[in-house]
Specification:
The chain is of the alpha+beta class. It is built from seven helices and 13 strands.
Length: 261
């Protein structure tokens, strides 16, 4: 199977399912691209698998139909032999991995995409831009969700350097925050994430305010494709995001995998 190294070829394949491929498109950026290994089948229907080795646990993202991905996933398993993987895949791809990997935890997620025609700006008067100097305040806020399993699990300090992180302060403490997992100006994509309101301050619309602030910032940057992810079972959050202007795009699975070998 050929490995792709040409950004334009890779981009063309990812553009076949752009809202789903936002994270992979962002990995075309310098500094990320060097950690990315791209696999595609020879000929036939467009498909692509990204093996991103920039984290302690490699991340697997796929684009395309299962029958087109089968040989590619076999090659990744045989050639790279990862003991652990973090899979971000559509449900129909999971059976291709079951024979080689054991699922440690499975989350059914909803990908939502921003629909400009449905945009309904919400008040965001009390939001402030968060920077790297606010790192400890952000960590304290997210630690509020540790016991209940609600704390964002994909936060990295460098996300505060993107100038797309907003929060609400009360008596010097951060009580709500939202930011972005990825922002790529070159690829014109972004993904909102790490949206959290302190448990004793919920029901006041704070999450809506910080999310709206991040969205407004991205719109001012003329980002064409903006998505967010939410657990498919979180109907209340999905309703809030729909009120702002997001629409469901697809279900997918996030799952840490461990090799059966």
């Amino acid at each position: 199977m050929p490995r792709l190294t040409d950004r334009e070829q890779i981009r063309n394949l990812l553009e076949t399912d752009r809202p789903w491929a936002v994270y992979a498109l962002a990995d075309l950026e310098p500094g990320l691209f060097e950690h990315a290994h791209w696999f595609c089948p020879a000929g036939g229907e467009p498909a692509l698998a990204l093996f991103f080795a920039g984290f302690a646990t490699p991340v697997l993202i796929t684009v395309g139909k299962p029958h087109a991905l089968r040989a590619v996933l076999d090659e990744i398993a045989d050639e790279l032999s990862p003991r652990e993987l973090y899979a971000v895949i559509k449900p129909e791809v999971m059976p291709l991995l079951d024979t080689r990997y054991r699922v440690l935890e499975k989350r059914i997620m909803q990908r939502m995409v921003f629909a400009p025609a449905q945009y309904r700006p919400m008040p965001m008067n009390h939001t402030v831009l968060l920077r790297i100097a606010d790192l400890e305040a952000v960590r304290r806020l997210y630690a509020d969700g540790d016991a209940s399993g609600e704390a964002p699990d994909w936060f990295l300090p460098q996300m505060l350097e993107q100038e797309t992180y907003y929060g609400i302060m009360e008596h010097g403490e951060l009580i709500a925050a939202a930011g972005t997992h990825v922002v790529s100006l070159d690829e014109n994509v972004a993904c909102l994430g790490n949206i959290y309101t302190r448990r004793d301050r919920r029901g006041r619309g704070l999450g809506t305010q910080v999310t709206t602030a991040v969205l407004a910032k991205l719109l001012s940057m003329d980002i064409a494709t903006i998505v967010l992810n939410v657990r498919a079972s979180n109907a209340a959050a999905i309703h809030v995001y729909e009120r702002i202007g997001f629409r469901p795009y697809c279900h997918y699975i996030e799952a840490p995998l461990l090799s059966r070998g």
